[in-house]
Design a protein that fits this description.
Strand order of the largest sheet of chain A: 2-1-9-7-5-6
Number of strands of chain B: 8
Radius of gyration of chain A: 20 Å
Largest sheet of chain A: 6 strands, mixed
Number of helices of chain A: 12
Distance between the termini of chain B: 17 Å
CATH architecture of chain B: 3-Layer(aba) Sandwich
Structural class of chain A: alpha/beta
Strand content of chain A: 15-25%
CATH architecture of the largest domain in chain A: 3-Layer(aba) Sandwich
Oligomer: heterodimer
Number of domains of chain B: 1
Structural class of chain B: alpha+beta
Chain lengths: ~375, ~240
């Protein structure tokens, strides 16, 4: 797995910040008029897109490349042993290169013409997967999933299914989102962005904090390593930008993931919440958890650490689970803490929130992703059999 | 790969609004229209008002393809190369002028807006995916539908593929057959093995250029006696064959 986000680059750099519950948000006032936003931005220069693939040059693909570079040698080694037509790419995104299109359109509004280096491949959703396929010379299926905030989780689900179907022997799967004017202004207009760092499950929660980043996995049949054991999906049939207040869609996705994993609720040792910190999300998610789990597992939202990375979040939070499972030992799993102001909302059904340094027994973990448009996807991951 | 059966299909393009006119068109194909959108009178007015042209076209094909009783029980895949990018471009133009965005327009511009609208209009709470894959969008949508079928073989998958021409700002940057259209295919797992099988092949040296979008090429083939269809202009080719018949 390769990862880049506001906490750093690569599992080794991110893991200590994740488990200590440290965040790195930065204020920006150049994205939304008359508003300063705290953002989980990736700091520093990003790798340059190779010249031959210049048509894919945009911040979104540079973030993908920053994550992919971390696993490039094992990926190339693995791929060279397989036929390139048997290796697929499934990437999630909600932004693709729209941030670079904003600059092109501003240029056009000033000069009457698009910036000369603007190419449609940067902007189109399919380019997020197309870039990876071209970069690695893969000729298996390559497509982008864009189901808003569940995109990254769905990408992993589809990667597993393409292997099970026999279409692919390996799949590069993950998700990337980049901060841009469209999403910051759009979510600001929806009045779901908090002025302070997001504060999930708190009585003082006021909304989400946006972030960006990329996570990529090499998904194979290998029984060693972390396993994607269960996938559960549902649609809300409720509203385009708000979840069902009862959390029925969230509940259906979690129950389906347990069924698919052939796991009982009591087997789950940790749950990574969707936990956006909006009043509605946390209420419906906790209600759904309380209905499923007679004794809910230890939970945390990692969005107070990296922000809500939208289309990238599902893969990133699966990546955090991957790190917890990989780092686990006989004494159990060290899990990411739930960082908030500690003023738990008394109206929320009680779910145990992870403290700093909290350990749980070894076992399967769950991660929730609930998207705009009512698209839900829950994954169950488990460490390699001992 | 496993075979898939097309239980039913429906399509919409301006002037081609029912199965009979599509069957005539398949025998004697002409240019497809780029402008126009369906009434979508089956949608509640509140939802219909907020639909992009593409959403109206894709939902019209989707509703036409399924019997009313089927609509809530199918999994869905909405595949579109450009999706609602024209709506996003409109939002970006507002941003370039420092104007605020409408929250409703923003939430209806996302790539999975069609899927969300379908879920609400058809009271459908099943698994749903929305994809894009440049030149290979139709074939990738088919594959994504196959992944959903593999997870629940008893549940059919409604695959809806469609696009409208790109806004003038970007249209010159893309070389493709332009049309406003959607094709909906209700795909199911064939209990007797009879159906259509998709396989991947290496790219051709010199891919031939198509006159119609891939999904429409598929429909033309499906309604013909030809045994095999090959599509794909990029790194790979996709071949469909009839099996078990």
């Amino acid at each position: 797995m390769g990862m880049v986000n506001a906490l750093g680059r690569g599992a080794d750099e991110i893991w200590p910040h994740l488990t200590r519950g440290e965040s790195r948000f930065r204020g920006r006032d150049d994205l939304v008029p008359d508003r300063r936003l705290l953002l989980g931005e990736v700091a520093g220069d990003l790798p340059a897109i190779p010249r031959a693939l210049r048509r894919y040059a945009c911040r979104n693909n540079a973030l993908t490349l920053a994550a992919l570079e971390q696993i490039e040698s094992p990926v190339r080694e693995r791929v060279s042993a397989l036929s390139p037509g048997r290796v697929g790419v499934v990437m999630g995104t909600s932004t693709s290169g729209v941030g670079d299109a904003e600059a092109a359109i501003r240029h056009r509004e000033r000069t009457g013409e698009l910036a000369r280096d603007f190419v449609y491949d940067q902007l189109e959703f399919g380019g997020t997967a197309g870039f990876v396929a071209h970069l690695l010379g893969l000729t298996g299926p390559a497509y982008t999933i864009s189901t808003a905030c569940s995109s990254g989780a769905r990408a992993l689900a589809s990667a597993r299914a393409l292997i099970e179907l026999g279409v692919c022997d390996a799949v590069i799967a993950g998700a990337t989102d980049s901060l841009c004017g469209l999403t910051t202004n759009g979510f600001s207009a929806l009045q779901v962005i908090s002025d302070e760092v997001t504060n999930p499950c708190s009585v003082n929660r006021r909304g989400l904090t946006l972030g960006e980043g990329s996570t990529v996995f090499l998904v194979t049949r290998d029984p060693q390593g972390v396993q994607l054991r269960g996938v559960g999906e549902s649609s809300e049939a409720h509203h385009m930008s708000a979840p069902d207040p009862e959390g029925l869609g969230a509940e259906a996705a979690m129950r389906a993931a347990l069924d698919d994993a052939k796991a009982a609720p009591g087997d789950i040792v940790y749950l990574n919440l969707h936990g956006t910190g909006t009043p509605l999300n946390d209420a419906m998610e906790c209600a759904a958890i309380a209905r499923i789990f007679p004794e809910p597992p230890v939970c945390s939202s990692t969005k107070p650490l990296v922000g809500h990375t939208l289309g990238a979040a599902g893969a990133m939070e699966a990546g955090f689970c991957w790190m917890m499972l990989r780092e686990g030992d006989r004494d159990g799993l060290l899990v990411a803490p739930h960082v908030y102001d500690g003023a738990r909302d008394p109206d929320l059904p009680p779910v145990p929130l992870a403290a700093r340094g909290q350990r749980v027994p070894r076992g399967p973990v769950m991660t929730n992703s609930f998207g705009f448009g009512g698209n839900n996807c829950t994954l169950v991951l488990e460490g390699a059999p001992a | 790969m496993i075979a898939t059966r097309v239980r039913s299909w429906a399509a919409w393009s301006p002037g081609l609004e029912d199965a009979a006119s599509w069957r005539r068109w398949c025998l004697d194909p002409k240019e497809l229209e780029c402008h126009g959108r369906p009434d979508a009178a089956f949608l509640p007015p509140m939802l219909r008002r907020r639909c992009s042209a593409l959403a109206r076209i894709m939902l019209t094909a989707a509703f036409e393809c399924c019997e009313e009783a089927e609509r809530s029980g199918v999994a869905t895949v909405f595949a579109s190369r450009h999706g609602n990018i024209n709506e996003s471009i409109g939002l970006l133009e507002r941003l370039a002028h420092g104007q605020p965005l409408s929250p409703t327009r923003f939430s209806h511009s996302v790539h999975n807006a069609q899927a969300g609208l379908y879920s609400i209009a058809a009271h459908n709470q099943q698994a749903s995916s929305s994809i894009a894959a440049q030149e290979d969008t139709f074939a990738s949508g088919w594959l994504e539908a196959a992944t959903l079928l593999s997870r629940a073989p008893e549940r059919p998958v409604l695959l809806v593929v469609g696009d409208v021409p790109l806004a003038a700002t970007f249209a010159t940057l893309v070389d493709e057959p332009e049309a406003s259209y959607a094709v909906a295919l209700l795909l199911e797992h064939p209990s007797d093995g009879r159906g259509v099988r998709l396989s991947l092949e290496p790219a051709a040296e010199d891919p031939h250029r198509l006159r119609w979008p891939d999904a429409v090429e598929f429909l033309r083939w499906y309604e013909s006696p030809e045994p095999r269809l090959v599509l794909g202009a990029g790194l790979r080719r996709y071949a469909w064959e009839r099996v078990g018949s």
